[in-house]
Design goal:
It contains 4 helices and 5 strands, in the order ααββββαβα. The chain is of the alpha+beta class and about 140 residues long. It has a 5-stranded antiparallel beta sheet with strand order 1-2-3-4-5. A hairpin with a 4-residue loop joins strand 1 and strand 2.
Length: about 140
């Protein structure tokens, strides 16, 4: 199992820290964060250290509601969405990779929520993330 790399509570994940942790994936991360904070998508990002997970996570919100969580690993980042039984029904109809749909369908519930986590190593998965963000915004 992968371990998050942003584990030191004293080191805020600024651009330098993120660039070092993400390496070749940093340009995709920068593009992604710029896009989601743009006027057209309208999300806000808040980095916070969570003691229970012992790492920094970025909570991404739209109108004060959580859209997804972003975590950084060595050379990649993840975008984690959580859907209820009701809000997850539209996932199969989305224009996203079939493997992502299969992952969601087979994911185990966490309480009443079904997770959908995209691992992003470059620009390849960004379109799926954008589609899921727009879908999640409509659900909240």
């Amino acid at each position: 199992m992968r371990q998050p790399v942003l584990v030191d509570e004293a080191i805020y994940p600024d651009e330098g820290v993120l660039s070092s942790a993400l390496g070749d994936t940093f340009p995709a991360y920068s593009e992604f964060v710029s896009a989601i904070q743009s006027e057209s998508i309208g999300c806000a990002c808040l980095w916070k250290y969570y003691r229970d997970g012992k790492s920094w996570l970025c909570k991404v919100t739209f109108r004060k509601k959580t859209v997804f969580w972003l975590a950084v690993y060595d050379g990649c980042f993840t975008v984690g969405f959580y859907f209820t039984e009701k809000t997850g029904t539209g996932i199969p109809a989305l224009d996203i990779d079939a493997a992502v749909k299969e992952q969601f369908a087979s994911a185990k519930l966490i309480g009443k929520l079904r997770p959908l986590v995209l691992t992003i190593h470059g620009h390849g998965r960004l379109n799926d993330a954008y589609v899921l963000i727009e879908y999640k915004k409509k659900c909240i």
